[in-house]
Every structure is written in C-alpha cells, then in structure tokens.
Amino acid sequence: MLSALSNVKSLQTETILSVWLILPAIAIFYYWKWSRSRTVRLLNAIPGPKALPVLGNLLDLNVYNEDFYKDMGIDWVKMYGPIYRIWLGPRPIVILASAELVQKLLSSSKYCTQSSDYSHLSSWLGNSMFMTTGTHWKNRRRIVRPGFHTQNFDSFIDIFNEKSSMCAEEFERIVEAKPDTAIDVTHLMTKCALNIICETAMGQTKQETEKEVYLNNMERFCQIFTERVHRPWLSNDWIYKMSSLRRECDRCVNALHAFTNKVARDRREMLERCTNNYSDHFPNSVIEDEKPHLTSRFAIVDRLIEASSRQMKGYDTTSVAMAWFLYLIAKHPENQQLIVDELDSVFSGNRERPCTIQDVPELKYMECCIKETLRLYPSVPSLMRKLIQDVELDGYTIPAGVTIIPIFYAIHHNPCIYPDPEAFKPERFFPENSNGRHPFAFIPFSAGPRNCLGQKYAMMELKVVFANLLRRVQFSVSDPAMSDAAEIGMTLKPKYGVRLIVSKRLNKV
C-alpha cells in the first residue's frame, strides 16, 4: 500500500516536472518562431534602441521621466534618425519625427486608422466621432463641422470676452490680497477655458463645484489612459479588469457621464423652452426668419448633442496652451512688452473695451507668440495610428497592423526647420520667415483628414483671452530657472504648474 502511494506521488512529481519543462520549451519555440516572422524582420531592419527579449524597450521608457518627450523627440531622433522603432514588450511601435514622413502618413486615410489604444477611451467617449473611423466617422464629422463655421464666431466672442474679463478680475483680486507673491496660474487658466467651453459648446454655465469635480475626474481618467498605453500588461482587458485602476476608472467615467448627460438634458430643455416662448409671441413667418439668430450662439452644442454628448476634451488643450503662453512671456518680458504695445495700438490704450471680431486679425504679433508657444509646447505632442496596409517609408517597409506614432514635438524642435529650436523666437512666424516652410512643419492641431475642427475657434479664443488679460495685468517670474518639465499624458501639461508673479499693469502717463 505504501509502495503504491509512493509510486503515485512519484508519478505526480514527474508529471509536474514534465509540465514545467514543456511549458518553457513551448514558450521558447513560439518566441523563436515569432522572432523570425516577416513582421519582426521588417521592423528590426528599422533603426532603434536595442531591445531585450520579451521586455523589449520597456526599461528605456519611463513615462514619469521629466525628459520623456525630449528623449524620444530629440535625443533618439539624433541617434536613430527621423524614423525608428521601439518594442513595448512584444508589441512594435514605429516613431515618425519628420514633416515629410508624417505628411505621407496623415494626408490620406487609406494608410491608417485610429490606434486600438484609443479603445481605452471608449468607456468615456463611447461611439463619438473621435472613436470612429470610415463612413461612420465621416458622417459624424459632417454633422459637427457647421458648428465651427466662422459665421458663429460673432456670438462666441461675447462669451470669450465675458469669461476672460472675469479671469482678469480674479487675477486683480489676488494681486490686491497677495501682492508680489508667486501663484500657480494653471488652475485659473483651466477654469477660464472650462467656463468658455461650458457656454460656447454647451450653452450654459455650471456651478464651480460641479466643474471642479469634472476637472479632477477628467485629469485622473487621462492619467489612467496613459498608464494603460505604456504598460502592455494593462492593455490586456482581463488583467486590467482585475486591477484597482479599473475600479477607479469606472468611478471617474460615471462622474464624467453624469456631468455631460446633465448638460445635454438641460440644454435640450432650454432650447424647447426658448422655442415655445418665442412661438407664443411671434407669428410663424417671424420665427422662421429669426431661427438662425436664436440658435447661432449655441450652434456647436446643438450639433454635438446630435453627434455625441461626450465631446468635452477641447477645454484641456486650450488651457494648456494658455498656461505655457503665460510662462513664456513671463520669462521673456521684452516679448510681453511688444504684445502690450500692439494691444495699446489696437485698443487705443483702452483697458476695458471688449475685443471685437475686427480686432482679432490685427493682433498679429500676439498670434506669432501663440504659434511659437504651440511650437515649443504643442498641447497634443503626438498621436497614435494603426496601419491598415503595408507602407513604404524612407526605404523601410512597415507591415500592416503596426502602431505608428507621429511625434509633433520632434518636428517642432527640428533644428533643420527651426534653428536654435529651444529658444522662444516669435519672429519665426513672421510671414517673411514662414514662406517656403514645409506645410507639416507646424501641426499643433494635427493635419490631414482628421485634423482638429476647432483650430480657428481655439486661436480666436486664445487671442481674446490674452487681449483682456494683458491689458490689465502683467506676468513675471520669480525664478528664471523654473522648470518647464511636462507631465506625460493626453496633453502636454506643465508637471509642476506655472508659478508666476502677477501685478497690475500701470496706465501710461
């Protein structure tokens, strides 16, 4: 009996040992087979950092490193050229860092589609335009595009003026309470941008507490998205669902949905009330004549409700641009003074007059400073695309299914396009200095068929906000060596905020 039991245990031990020997053998065989596949051979022909077995370049890629984009967009481009590959474990990524290569990729949708990484956003954005491709995407874009027509800007500019003047007043109150004290301007600029988008893109204002909750949940959701992209094991839905990140993400998404659903519901109710009230007092002929004027102020939100009630990311990119702009003009007071001189000329020294549609194109030097800000710190520094067919780029064949990352940050910091690329030089964008520049050399709003529909809206918003701010307050730095480290995420935010000294602008004698 004891002998039989001993034999059984021995057999079990041998079986377990056999399994532990067979499984590694199978894994090694499949790794060997995969490493000799066409995809791997084609990708390893592309220059790039040496990859470790299984891990790839994961140890080289630290998203919490302050110099992450400088490493990938400047140092590695110098080492490997304008096209190079990295491995996130067994997953290949191809980086594009030249205007010519990015133009070929983005100028036509026949080469690529949205990367599967963006599926991590689906719990929030659902079936919105950002998430779709093909005919569905074209239909959504067609619905949304009229909301960004320039004919709607007349109604938007009143909101831009109102909210930016409120922001200037808040800065003035802070100056009176805490003169000569450095404050973090990022929160105030974020609040200003969100106030604007709430009214122009949603037709209403919201309580401060509601907006604070929304901002906090949005920021955390984006952080989780970034972690999933850069940690391959979290891309596995089974592993992700078992993690605490999933539970935290669900909480954030539920809060975001509650906010946007309430906005859409309130907006529909308001439009119905306005229509009913108007029809009670005027004949049908007058209603038809005035209908365009009644709804023009809220053209974007009406169409976004049709397309999706979850299109709220726009405030984030503009608020980031606002913070970096103030950082740069504070560090370069001579450029700030040139902007103020232009404002004094356009507004005849009037610090209170609202900015008009006619004023906006006259702010030429300010526009150059905004563009130079977006060159140095593009709000969206890169994007991800998935190849739907083999593509020949710079002599290399990149197989279908591979993720491509065009890094706008790298193009904007290319010394062959922009000499002394780390310097703040708004004159780069003077007309005489921009002639002949590659059309994809400056693409802070992306480019090609999927470019940002709101880029004219954003530029106008930035001009009006800065026109109202800089006529009333001025910005300076307490520490000229303050960090410009960026937080890696969906947008290029200042990692440590932007602490500036704000003071009232003195009237000229």
* Proportion of beta-strand residues: 5-15%
**Reading side by side through the largest sheet, how are the strands ordered?**
1-2-8-5-3
Distance between the termini: 110 Å
CATH topology: Cytochrome p450
Rg for CA atoms: 27 Å
CATH architecture: Orthogonal Bundle
Write the CATH homologous superfamily: Cytochrome P450
**Structural class of the helices, strands and pairings?**
alpha+beta
**Major β-sheet annotation:** 5 strands, mixed
Number of distinct beta strands = 12
| Global mean pLDDT | 81
How large is the count of helical segments? 20
Describe this protein with a few key phrases.
alpha+beta, 12 strands, 3-stranded antiparallel sheet, Cytochrome p450, 509 residues, Cyt_P450_CS, 5-stranded mixed sheet
Walk me through the topology:
Elements lengths: L1 H34 L2 H7 L23 H13 L2 E6 L2 E6 L2 H8 L5 E3 L7 H4 L8 H11 L8 H25 L4 E3 L1 H15 L7 H23 L1 H4 L1 H5 L2 H38 L2 H13 L2 H9 L6 H18 L1 H15 L16 H13 L8 E3 L3 E3 L2 E3 L4 E4 L1 H5 L18 H4 L20 H16 L2 E4 L9 E2 L5 E2 L4 E6 L5
Parallel strand pairs: 2-8
Antiparallel strand pairs: 1-2, 3-5, 4-12, 5-8, 6-7, 9-12, 10-11
Helix pairs in contact: 6-14, 7-8, 7-20, 8-15, 9-12, 15-17, 16-17
Structure, described:
The chain has 509 residues and is of the alpha+beta class. It has a single domain (58-504), classed as Orthogonal Bundle (Cytochrome p450), CATH 1.10.630.10. The chain is built from 20 helices and twelve strands. The chain has helices at residues 2-35, 38-44, 68-80, 99-106, 122-125, 134-144, 153-177, 186-200, 208-230, 232-235, 237-241, 244-281, 284-296, 299-307, 314-331, 333-347, 364-376, 408-412, 431-434, 455-470; strands at 83-88, 91-96, 112-114, 182-184, 385-387, 391-393, 396-398, 403-406, 473-476, 486-487, 493-494, 499-504. The strands form four sheets. The chain has a five-stranded mixed sheet, with helices on both faces. The chain is globular and about 100 Å long. Residues 305-311 have low confidence and may be disordered.
